[in-house]
Input
Amino acid sequence: MSENIDYKKAAAYLKNHDNFHILIHQNPDGDAVGSGYALCFALRKMGKRANVMCSDDIPSKYAYITDNYTADKFSPDTIISTDIADTKLLGKKLSAFADYVELAIDHHATNTGFAKRLAIDPHASSACEIVYDIFKAGEIEIDELTATCIYTGMATDTGSFKFDCTTPRCHEIAAEIIRDFHVPTGRIGRILFDIKSEERLRLETKIINSMQTYLDGKCAIIYISLDDLDAFSASNEDVEGVANIPMQIKGVEVGVTIKEKKENQYKISMRSAETIDVAEICKKFDGGGHIRAAGCMMDGDIDQVRMKILSAVAAEMGIDLWLA
Ligand SMILES: [Mn+2]
Output
């Protein structure tokens, strides 16, 4: 049985425990990295031992965070997670922790309640926003580095303060941490949103050229095969954020990105512009996420996968696929 706890209780929990392993999800994004390391740095500042654990390597663009971290050697007494909605997202290396998470900090409405204690707010822009409010509630001291982590997660999950999840609270926190800790916003913004590897930029032209639109231009699908990655010498890191590419087309309501993971296995990412709940669509395929950004895994032949996705998107749009 899990228990919902408020931020004061969550802060008290952090204060009253030690030797933390902080779990973040596989394929970590800016919010996973930001919230995980923010917790770690703040706990260490309190004199506690803490490590951040992830099944995958942390992308090199977050070096301005991870360069300030070295893993400690100790056996954990306290397992907590952040930005993880489902233990499936722990990935291979961390799956053994699935039943032992004491506290989950998260902002996904689809959180499965796997942890003993839950500090969850589906209206928060990011896990980082919740982590910051937990620090505030418990008067836990932070520094410039921790503030930079918090800013990173908020900027990532709000698409640089553009998405609908950009609430007044989100701007208030950004204002507070920029004022109090002089977070280098320009530098972080460029690292997170502007700089791409040459391989990525060239791969983008291929993806865009082979993009297809359906349902009267309301749905666009891009596909990235393992061969594409090979041909452009692109790494997994190079394809981060490609899901936003189809959303740039005028009239597209749902953008779908299909990434080949291995033969006949694909990772699907969906984005929605204004009206469609893509979390609902991804749930049909055992996935989940947010209304405007969700994902799932699918198996099978690429054409079948494409058709299945398209019918699900059409159904959510109320369009009869066979007449469209
Ligand atoms: Mn997040």
